[in-house]
Amino acid sequence: MKDALVIIPTYNERENIEAMVRKVMSLRHPFDLLIIDDGSPDGTADIVRDLQMEFPGRLHLETREGKLGLGTAYIHGFKYALRHGYEYIFEMDADFSHNPDDLIRLYEACAVEGYDVAIGSRYVQGVNVVNWPMDRVLMSYFASAYVRLITGMPIHDTTAGFKCYRRKVLETIRLNKIRFVGYAFQIEMKFLAFKYGFKIKEVPIIFTDRTLGESKMSSGIFKEAVLGVLKMKVSSFFLHFDRY
């Protein structure tokens, strides 16, 4: 059984990807890293291929044709992780908005403390966001509050994209049934983990907006998340969440 795999989807991240790979590879825990690149025209995948020679067996690359959505990239990565026998599977961004040093804290929440899902949370201890305009902070914060109200999840940061899953969580969730592809995907995965009764911990982090490259976030992404929650909640009334 392999230990830990960090999954990072990329699209036009040539300004960040080499520094991110080197940082993850330098951590005291030997994380493997899977880059899933959606046909970046800026040559992101070529940079990763060059780095693979420097980190053989630890740095992996999967390429896809065109932008197919964040959710489908992560599901592609989850299936890769399950096929290759990883026990702890991580999601994170390529742009350093998630501090790679926090991978250790997420890992320890699952591997040492025994949680099934660890979430790098911006809102579990107030609001820990740097370099976001106030309207975006408020939109994100109140979107999470709305999701908590509708779903009943005791999670402060419901749209967080920095997470660690134990293998058994991804084996239980029917990945082919995941419906959302944008940031609503992050809500849906947490909701399913919650409904299946897995132990979830929010680990406080400081989220720092990217300084290099172009943001993929938009108000439309949050709108998808907010509107999709109602449908997700109603659908859950007709599903059985039995892990055995």
What is the gist of this entry?
The protein is α/β, with parallel strands linked by helices and 244 residues long. It has 8 helices and 9 strands.
Please describe what this structure looks like.
- The chain is of the alpha/beta class and 244 residues long.
- Helix content is 40%, strand content 18%.
- It has a 7-stranded mixed sheet, sandwiched between helices.
- It is globular, with a radius of gyration of 17 Å.
Please estimate the helix content. 25-40%
Mean pLDDT: 89
Number of strands: 9
Q: If strands are numbered along the chain, what order do they take across the biggest sheet?
A: 3-2-1-4-7-5-8
Oligomer: single chain
Tally the helices: what do you get?
Answer: 8
Distance between the termini: 22 Å
Beta strand %: 15-25%
Largest sheet: 7 strands, mixed
Q: H/E order of the elements?
A: EHEHEHEHEEHEHHEEH
**Low-confidence runs (pLDDT<50, min 5 residues)?**
none
The SS-based structural class is alpha/beta
Radius of gyration over C-alpha positions, nearest whole angstrom: 17 Å
The coarse silhouette is: globular
